[in-house]
TrEMBL record:
Residue ranges of the TM segments: 12-32, 44-75, 95-118, 138-166, 178-199, 220-246, 266-284, 291-308, 320-344, 356-389, 435-457
Organism: Reinekea marinisedimentorum
The keyword Transmembrane is assigned to this record: yes
Pfam families: CitMHS
Single GO molecular function: phosphate transmembrane transporter activity
Domain Citrate transporter-like: 51-401
Keywords in alphabetical order: Membrane, Transmembrane, Transmembrane helix, Transport
CC terms in the record's Gene Ontology section: plasma membrane
Subcellular location: Membrane
Name this polypeptide is given: Sodium-dependent dicarboxylate transporter 2/3/5
């Protein structure tokens, strides 16, 4: 009975939050805070989105449509009253932008790799290459999860790797701590892998979209260069941390000799599309091609050659695309209403840029622990890019927040890979929290120390 009542209760809470947001501008907030009507309404939309993202009273993609509806119907008249040249297309455009197309191409690549079983082939090859030596096997698992998560859904990668690794754990003593370490490595390394490419995780797409809107173009290759040291350091610490906390002792792993079928036409076509697309993303900018334009190739080729069908198209994670789009649309409202400058005025005037980075990173780490990384990025990045900062500082700030979102993994609910691994019954909340805190603290330290130093040198 309670399970039936809770969803209805959540809907009531969400409705009350919407009503409060709509009446907020008439409560005297504008006079107290010296905001104009457009800014007050933008604050209301921002707060409503934050509440709904944190509580998940409604599906996260629905929040994006609420943001869009309020911007078009409620906010637009107030914006136009300020004699600002604005049209509905400003709020519609994020829902099919270059970044959204790029992400769609990434999802298609993920689908054809899974259907051709190229992901499982790579995982099996990595495990076979390690020859059962526990430390090297653990390193191979981490490397495999990171590589796959750079190009495909980290959720799908975690599910696939768990299927392959669980039988290996049966070879270990029941009381061996390394059993837990092997399983724990999968979700945490999948979380880290998303940092490596623009398509690795939705927060990356949100970051690139806002940077592009500010005239800061970061190419696919440049993103890899900017994030790779961050990724390698966190991966190395994860490997050493698991070996320290969950030592293998004298355990030995033996890979079963599974028969691998030779490549057929599907595998060759899939491999060609994958390699050609990645090369296009890496060098396409030199020929004036946007990443979203290049992403059209795998989309068209995959369905043209019959590697995917209509059911696969319907199965694409459209909810993620709309979640990202809603976050971008929220940023448009903050920018066009000039709310960012108001937010900047509330920050300590004597604070240094380094203190500002530390503050935003800490806020992101806390939010990313209790809400989705996508929602955290969608909430913080629009605020950051609206600040009047030099180009290099703005890019460093966005990178610090975005990468920190991927290291927020303390709880089973923090990321889908964490939840999947927790559901296996092999690891507990304490296991995830122990290593998750290490990754979170490391992410914060890197984001406010080594990260900015490296980024300023590279930029």
């Amino acid at each position: 009975m309670l399970a039936q009542l809770l969803p209805h209760r959540y809907k009531i809470f969400a409705t009350l939050a919407l009503i409060i947001a709509l009446i907020l501008p008439s409560t005297g907030l504008a006079e107290l805070s010296h905001l104009n009507d457009a800014q007050t309404k933008t604050v209301a939309i921002l707060l409503l989105a934050a509440v709904l993202w944190v509580t998940e009273w409604v599906p996260l993609f629905v929040v994006s449509f609420i943001i869009l509806a309020l911007e078009l119907i409620w906010l637009m008249p107030s914006v136009q009253a300020l004699d600002i040249a604005a049209s509905d297309s400003l709020f519609f455009s994020p829902f099919f932008s270059n970044i959204i197309l790029l992400f769609m191409g990434g999802f298609v690549l993920s689908s054809i790799m899974q259907k051709a079983a190229l992901d499982s082939r790579l995982a099996f090859w990595i495990l076979k290459l390690t020859k059962g030596e526990p430390k090297i096997t653990l390193l191979g698992i981490i490397a495999g999860c990171i590589f796959l998560s750079m190009w495909m859904s980290n959720t799908a990668t975690a599910a696939m790797m768990l299927t392959m690794i669980l039988p290996l754990t049966k070879q270990l003593r029941f009381d061996s701590p390394f059993r837990v370490g092997l399983i724990l490595a999968i979700p945490l390394s999948c979380n880290l892998g998303g940092m490596g490419t623009p398509i690795g995780t939705p927060p990356n797409a949100i970051a690139m979209s806002y940077l592009t809107a500010k005239g800061i173009d970061v190419s696919f290759l440049e993103w890899i260069i900017l994030t790779m040291p961050f990724l390698l350091i966190t991966a190395g610490v994860l490997w050493l941390g698991i070996l320290k906390v969950y030592p293998p002792g004298n355990d030995v792993l033996e890979m079963s000799e599974a028969k691998i079928e030779p490549f057929r036409a599907r595998q060759w076509f899939t491999l060609f599309i994958f390699v050609f697309t990645v090369i296009g993303w890496l060098i396409g900018g030199q020929f004036g091609l946007k990443t979203g334009t290049i992403a059209l190739f795998p989309i068209i080729a995959s369905f043209w050659l019959g590697l995917l069908d209509q059911s696969d198209f319907r199965a694409l994670p459209w909810d993620v695309l709309f979640m990202v789009s809603g976050g971008i649309a929220l940023g448009v409202a903050i920018d066009i209403s000039d709310l960012g400058q108001v937010i900047l005025s509330f920050l300590p005037a004597t604070g240094s840029f380094e203190m500002l980075v530390a503050l935003m990173v800490m806020v992101g780490a806390v939010l990313g622990t209790v809400m989705s990384n996508t929602a955290t990025a969608g909430l913080l990045i629009p605020i950051v890019v609206s600040l009047a900062l030099p180009t290099n500082q703005l890019l460093v700030m966005v990178l610090a927040i975005t990468l920190n979102c991927s290291t927020a993994m303390i709880l089973p609910i923090s990321t889908p890979p964490n939840a999947i691994a927790f559901g296996s019954g092999m690891i507990g909340v304490k296991d995830i929290a122990r290593m998750g805190i290490l990754m979170n603290v490391l992410g914060i330290i890197l984001a406010i120390t080594i990260g900015p130093i490296y980024w300023f040198l590279v930029l």
